[in-house]
Amino acid sequence: MSVLLDVKDIAKSFKLKGHWYHKRKLNALSPLSFAIEAKKTLAIVGETGSGKSTLAKILVGAETPTTGKIYLNGQLLKNQHFKQRCQHIRMIFQDSGTTLNPSLTIQELLDEPLILNTVLNEKQRKNLIRTTLQKVGLLGDHMNFYPHMFSGGQKQRISLARAIILQPQVIILDEALAALDPSLRSQMINLLLDLQQQMGLAYILISHNLGIVRHFSDDVMIMSQGEVVESGKTIEVMRNPQHKVTQKLMMSQNFQIK
Ligand SMILES: Nc1ncnc2c1ncn2[C@@H]1O[C@H](COP(=O)(O)OP(=O)(O)OP(=O)(O)O)[C@@H](O)[C@H]1O
């Protein structure tokens, strides 16, 4: 398998407010590199403030890295090409479902990215919206409904439909499964795994929950204070955690693999 997303030496520092002769900087991310293949999932785990969201924002183009480069299919992603970036790398948040604009129908919500990013006519867009809703386990006719007519789990599926409608290659799941109860969560994980195979997607899973990370990811990166302290195959890292941050995380969740 060849590399889909190649992240090389990405770092980020924020300038903090201060006197002009005493400007302070916060290093949110020290230079880090990783690569993901299609149909694979990389989990990013770390305590609060470890830099996970900053990294995710850089990947989707919402933050500019201080240094480093990102390649998708061998092509350098330019920071200013936001449209190209958001077509290929999409993000779903924990509360994505609740942020759906309540005054728009599902059809209008899913039509927005298509109008902005494609040259499809109205009929083609409507057909694509119908098939995308079916792909995420909803009905084509749900396009005429409003967000408040859906449950939390269904709203998360609508966010997923919005994320996949432009046929992206990478989806970042930022605690996207955290708010779901265990049975809805496993349904959503199975759906995500099916879509991964069908569409050749790579996932980046940001999660605090080591149970989800173990079930869902192939590889894991453990972060602390902006640095990757441990990384490797999820099962191997969890069987034999080397770094004290990983060990502490596992102990705090009473998590053990024999
Ligand atoms: N816009 C910003 N300006 C200044 N500092 C920032 C900014 N965004 C993030 N930071 C700082 O960068 C560091 C990393 O933050 P980040 O949100 O990436 O952590 P995180 O691992 O996602 O945490 P959480 O799990 O709580 O979301 C923190 O110290 C944070 O305060």
From TrEMBL:
Keyword Transit peptide appears in the UniProt entry: no
Claim: Cell membrane is one of the keywords in the record: yes
Superkingdom classification of source: Bacteria
Topology versus the membrane: Peripheral membrane protein
Cellular localisation: Cell inner membrane
GO MF, one annotated term: ATP hydrolysis activity
Alphabetical list of PROSITE patterns matching this protein: ABC_TRANSPORTER_1, ABC_TRANSPORTER_2
Every ABC transporter domain range: 5-250
Name of one Pfam family that matches: ABC_tran
Keywords: ATP-binding, Cell inner membrane, Cell membrane, Membrane, Nucleotide-binding, Transport
GO cellular component terms, semicolon-separated: plasma membrane
Major localization class: membrane
Annotated SUPFAM superfamilies: P-loop containing nucleoside triphosphate hydrolases (SSF52540)
Single GO BP term: transmembrane transport
UniProt xrefs under PANTHER family: PUTRESCINE EXPORT SYSTEM ATP-BINDING PROTEIN SAPF (PTHR43776:SF4), TRANSPORT ATP-BINDING PROTEIN (PTHR43776)
Protein family membership: Belongs to the ABC transporter superfamily.
Protein name in the entry: ATP-binding cassette domain-containing protein
Gene source species: Colwellia demingiae
Lineage: Bacteria, Pseudomonadati, Pseudomonadota, Gammaproteobacteria, Alteromonadales
